[in-house]
Amino acid sequence: MRKEVQKLGLEKIFDVDEFDRNPVWLTIKGWGISDADLDDRRLTKKLIALMLFNSSRLAPDMARLGFSKIRLDEAKGKLFYRLQKEGAGDNSEGDWSAEQFLSRLALQEGEEGVLCPYRTAQTYLQRTAPRRAASTPDRLLLSLRRSPDGQDKDDVGPMKGDEISELLWELLNEAGVDPLLARKKGAPTPYTHRATTTTHSPSLFFS
Amino acid sequence: MEERDAKEELFAKFKGVPSKVRIFSEEGSLEALLPLLPDAIDLSNVVVAFDFDQTLKVLIKGQGIGVRGGEASVRVLQELRARGAHLLVISAASPSVTTGTVLY
Questions:
Q1: Which of A41, A89, A120, A189 has the smallest count of CB within 10 Å of its CB?
Q2: Quick check: helix, strand or coil at residue A96?
């Protein structure tokens, strides 16, 4: 946003604060280099953060990412995804956005790719594959909540916005970032940039 | 349910606050905004919110990305700011360099 405002020559009119992702990346790096070693909760949080903060997506979009439309292109090193349009219901082709992608990070020798959305998505898809067999939810992100009877979580369906919001909140807290402040600083939520001060409605990410 | 109640409560607070929504012509500048504003010099009690892509930022034929209405619009924005109006950009999608070009 800052670059765009500058490009338009409006930087003296609109102040744009930017969200500093570094504390989040440091936290994730602190979890270790192997995604396979992460528990389900951390792996999911990591995937959400990597997709959200590496793209122009907004938090509410995460609940609209369709599993059936996610594909990893090994040759191109790209994670392709599409979003289901708001209010769409019957899963027909017209309900989906154009395909977009995140690229696999090109690594220097010795780098581990800890912050690579492609690699984390790969692990996440492998990890969740057995759970999908039972109910085949059509979304990328599967809920981590247990069913009301406290039974196993293999068939609780896709993750909804409130749970994604909760995970993001947890991650930002763990990174020492005040989630409300993150909103003010332009974390990927519906953007509001103010000319005089940057003040935003302090509510959930999915408001 | 709680979230919906909270939203309704929030909206209710602003019910009755005078507001106007305008869609400007593609060709014009933000000068069209001025007649909609109060006459008072001090606009510190006024909030002017803009969409970004395709509203403030447009693709100008032969020139690339620019401000809708060019310099005339920039002057209006400067004037509004000088008069104390609160200027906001509210965008439904996270703006990016490619957003404008993709839509075209």
A1: A89
A2: strand
